[in-house]
Amino acid sequence: MILTIESLGVVLANNELDKEFVEKQRGRLEELRAELVRMVEGLEEDQQDRGESEGDMTENDSGDMSQSLFTREMDATVEQTMEKRLQSVDQALRKIEEGTYGICDDTGEPIPRGRLEAMPEAIYTVEAQQRRERERRPPL
Q: Model's pTM, two decimal places?
């Protein structure tokens, strides 16, 4: 059974968003989620295949070993980024179900419609997102 905003009788917390917009965003988020899952699974398969084809690394010279390590690190970074985005997509889908889509998880302020159109998985306002990123980065 799929619950919709209408069947839940949910009042939208962000006045800029109408039910039609939220349902459209749900569809976009579900498509994005499926794409991210495919990409993560593809990366995992690539890593497994590469591990099997590389075999015993002691047979490779230092240049081959360096290239292999670099590739593995890049794949791991890309995979982490995709998994983080997937978490945001899942959170946005939960917020639709709760009726809080378009409300910043940090400040409780409405997320502008334009931001949600550009990035349907946004769960923070631009300002809150920038603050969170600054807090995670050590000062130079």
A: 0.71
